[in-house]
Amino acid sequence: MKLTIDSGLGRELYIRGGMTTIIAAIAYFILGIDAWIWLLPVGVTALVLVKWLLHPRVDDDIDDEE
What we know:
By secondary structure, the protein is an all-alpha fold. The chain has helices at residues 7-29, 39-54. Helix 1 (7-29) packs antiparallel against helix 2.
């Protein structure tokens, strides 16, 4: 299996990883949660990469609406 780097992967990493990092920062700095909260964005990013490794997006997956 080969991880193809295309715009879909980058977009998903930015959206899921970025939003999780923002939530972790709010939880750490404002709510005073312990430092383990910083593992959450790492885990989300790892799950996205695993998802793309196991099921990469293929052109057939995209349905064109007519």
